Amino acid sequence: MAMLASLGLCAMLLIACAAQPTPSPAVTGLPAHGGFDYQLGGAYPPDPDVSLVVRDRTARPSDGAYSICYINAFQTQPAEQDHWPHDTLLTSDAGPVIDPDWPDEILLDTSSAPKRAAITHLLTAWIEGCAHAGFDGVEFDNLDSFTRSDGALTVDDNLALAARIARIAHDAGLAVGQKNAAEFSPRLRDEADFDFAVAEECAAYGECDAYTKVYGDAVVDIEYTDQLPESFAALCAEEASPRAMILRDRHLVTPDQNGYVYEACQR
After folding, report:
1. Quick check: is 154 in a domain?
2. Which of 9, 40, 140, 213 is the most buried (most CB within 10 A)?
């Protein structure tokens, strides 16, 4: 009887051990020092003092730098609308719902669990592709798409998708960053487990502290030349500005193109 009990206990332990989830790859946080560059318009060798680079998911990560992979997770990218099943696109009686500032982008329909599952299916391949390519983190753009949906989508719809894809990214070993949507930073951190923020023009719009109060130094910010309320040096000197802040041209062109601008805060 004792032997049978012992065998039963061993069997139970084996089942319990088998049921344990496989540990996720270690997620590495943003570097604490060094500059950064935002290269969505095309990849190029960053300055020697740059330790963090953001590139599109279709590019390779930067050699020798912490690399963040850009994914437009809540709207379609220009010329990629055919990648998305029709029922994942938000439509109205007038047709597809378009981002008014980006007329080549259609909002994705996050309004129901089945639609979010279909969106997640495609995003999973992109997220895991970023990890396989060697990126360290991922940023999810257009978290605030619901504000352009004329009430068809809600913040809770988008947060539900955000939490789902953040788990997938963490399981793939990627740190997860929110893109803009400053006022929702606490919920994205607490409910979706986001790790850092990529802000655009937070100094110009006076909202940097909405990120830094939540993420501390794990905030990077891009200011643009066509939206400077004062000199870039003055923005850098403001107490609320993140440590990692740069000035770029609006179209994020490469150094060999006309209009290229890159300047980093000197601190």
Report:
1. yes
2. 140
Which run of H or of E encompasses 139? strand 137-141
Q: What pLDDT is stored for residue 259 in this prediction?
A: 96
pLDDT digits (tens, 9 = 90+) for 98-156: 999 888 999 999 999 999 999 999 999 999 999 999 999 999 999 999 999 999 999 99
With 0.85 as the threshold, say if the pTM is over it: yes
Count other Cβ atoms within 10 Å, centred on residue 79: 8
As a whole number of angstroms, the distance between CA 242 and CA 33 comes to: 12
pLDDT at 26: 81
Domain count, the chain: 1
> Residue holding tokens 């990120």?
211
The domain containing residue 168 runs over which residues? 38-264
What is the C-alpha to C-alpha distance for residues 203 and 194, in angstroms, rounded to an integer? 22
Judge whether residue 11 has pLDDT over 70. no
**Is the Cα torsion angle 88, 93, 98, 99 positive or negative in sign?**
negative
* CATH code (residue 136): 3.20.20.70
